[in-house]
Amino acid sequence: MKRVKDMDPGLSVPSLASLEQERRILSDLGNDITGVRDKNDLIILFSNRIRSLFYFTHTIVTLIDARDETYTPFLLDHKSSPIRSHAIYPELIKAHFSLNESFIQAALRAEEPISFLLEDIMDQPQSPSFLRANYEAGVKEILMTRLMKEGKPMGFIHIYSDKPNSFSIEFRNVIKGIAPQLSGAVSNIIKNEEIIKKEKEKSLLLDFSNGIATVRTKEELALAVRAVLKKINPPGGFVIRKINEDNTTMSPYAYDLTKTHDPKVIDALEQARYPINDGLQDRVLNSAIPLLFKVDREIQRGITSSYLQYWKTMGFKEIVGIRLRNGETNHGILFLDIQEINVQLLQGICSQISIALANIMANEQINKKQEEQAFLLDFSSDVALVKTKLDLQAAIFRVLDKTMHTQLSMIRIIDEDDYNLSAFMYDETLFETAKTHFAELLANRVTVEDAYTAEVLASEDGIVFNIEEELKTGNTYARLWKTTGLKNMYGLPLRVGNKNIGTIWLLADRLSKLMLKGICAQISIAIANIQANEKLLAYKKQLEVENDYLKEQIKTIYNFSEIIGNGEQMQEVYRLMSLVAGTNTTVLILGETGTGKELIARAIHNASPRNDKLMVKVNCAALPANLIESELFGHERGSFTGAIDRRIGKFELANNSTLFLDEVGELPPEAQAKLLRVIQERELERLGGKQTIKVDVRLIAATNRNLEEEVKAGRFRADLYFRLNVFPINLPPLRERLEDIEPLTHFFVKKYSRNTGRKIRKIAPKVIQQLRSYTWPGNVRELEHLIERSILLTTDGILHDVYIPQNTVTDKQELPHLLNHSLEEVERSYIIEILRRCSGKISGPGSAAEILKIPGNTLHSKLKKLAITKKDYFS
Ligand SMILES: Nc1ncnc2c1ncn2[C@@H]1O[C@H](COP(=O)(O)OP(=O)(O)OP(=O)(O)O)[C@@H](O)[C@H]1O
What we know:
alpha+beta; Beta-Lactamase; 5 domains; six-stranded antiparallel sheet; 29 strands; binds adenosine-5'-triphosphate; ATP-binding; AAA+_ATPase
């Protein structure tokens, strides 16, 4: 210390007047202080009171900050300060000055007010800058007085004067006397300020907590946080990062959008995933108190996370990081660009943010689940309509690409051999930049044993292949996948029930497990449906082709114009046919065997409005009695022994068409009863079935029996007979329409010449003669067969002869020829003869067995026993 004036002013004895003055000032000041509202009013009052007695330029009060051993201006009388327009004044009034320098140390030690000449102290090492500033403004002297609280210095009264020797003993005594009161007042102000600050904080927290309680989205959270931070740290920015589901990275979640406008930056922020353990985020998460750090220093420490660089470019120097934690769970971090931290307040704010963050994230998860469910529902209804591969591809594209940013790379389906897989669907546009590589992949044979396919097929919910990782392991496909720019390839099994039907390969950055499972289930079902549909279509197509073919066949074989014969009797038949063809009336065609009953039935159907469908024929005589019902009406699975599958009956098959009941006279009684019911009710039940089925069937029945006699004999139901005999058409036997023999002969000659390839140029007149003289028990069928046989025996293109069967056994003239033969020989000749007449028909209607009145089986054994072969009766 160079020069200190009045080293011991306390030793001087104050005069009575000065004591009185001092008392007055003290009491006036005491009264003033109680009325002071603003802290700076206190110093102004103080200055004004003293100034009325003593001279000085200005005064300030500084406060000691024990934590960092500094003192800082607290009460300022700006108006009086000669340095108020000094450039560094704004800095000075906020600055913290060190207590570790000689000038202030002397002031600290002095129990009495102590004065200094500025020129003596201002150039000392570490002298506070305000000394020189005042000196340059003309101030000469400073009087420093300690303010004490509970026996410890709490600050100083600085009194400045631009005149030397301003601080008299009286002056000093007054200041000394006032100092304790001033200390008390300053303490009260500090306390009051603290209370106000606490109140403010409380109301700030309350406001924040009210505001944040209604926050539902991260955008609202960002706004609420911004609003509260503006109050405590107006210029600062902030970001809230949340811990991602992977628990190893964090991403920006909510931030001050007013600070960030660049869409590229926003996009980068949204996409960023910073590893938690980067040396900074983990420190914040592990710290119970806010962590203040300098951006530059962290970069120097070697923390490479890109956000530090970003902060640096944004001009953030000091940042506070506070963990956002609920109970024992960390949810994220709040980073604030702030210099001064109020730990308690920040922690209060952060605990509110933590609750809100946890709620919003839970809410987001619920929304996400709901969205996923809604999405799957949409997808499933989209997919339910899918019939073709193209539909499926469109549906997949619609939902996967548009809503989920997921690309379908390939669907492979396991072939019928259960070993190879074929590409079912793929998107080659994905691999535009690697066309050849993709083509190679497509050409590759893939089997269920291939490593990746086997892995996927064996997995429960599929495998996620991280493309970068796969590249490192040498997965050759990964090079191709990488060209798409997406991060992961998801290989999933397609299953229907427990059966693997194929694999699906999806490319995406991220996908939820639940979604994947749902999507795969839907796609699997869709593929199974498509396959079933394709099979069905192929089957349908085949049936259509067969149907067309059959129709064509039938048209060529049975054509109205191919009914030959223009005799009177046939004319009558045609008249009746054309009368009835266009109606739905039941027709009963009567006539001997081979007279053309079926031909007429088909012609009626073909001329009817039902001709676009096939006529369905049932031969009632050709079926075992026990199967007739099932043949006519169908049966349900297991309705009787041998009914393995459900079967549709001929009645149902003939719906909207015509049912031709051939040999209706042969129907067993139960079937007759059922048939009657169907004709009456126009509906039926399948055997073993409960459901009644409506049918619209036109009936044409035919028989060579005399039904009236059958009714009389009790073999045919009268009621059924009346139902069938609505419109009878009688076909005359051939022997009664001899005029038709010639045209029929020509017709058959032509037909069989064509069929056999033997051209017949001429028919000898004798032939027609022969034909007309025969009785034709087998009618037109017999004539047809005879012509066919005769043509086969013709060698020169001229039909010289026909091999008319001999007359029947009833012809008495034939009998003498048989007289000298054994019974067996006679039997043999007789059977051969009958077989000839029946054109070789052994059993059934119009057959040899029928004429011989023996069962077909018996005739068969006789033929064997008597060594009768086709040669015998066709020669
Ligand atoms: N008027 C005809 N014109 C041409 N062919 C005929 C004629 N009538 C019958 N046919 C032919 O005779 C054969 C037997 O005819 P169809 O089967 O229709 O007789 P059907 O009376 O039903 O015999 P069945 O009572 O034995 O069943 C068939 O090949 C048929 O084409």
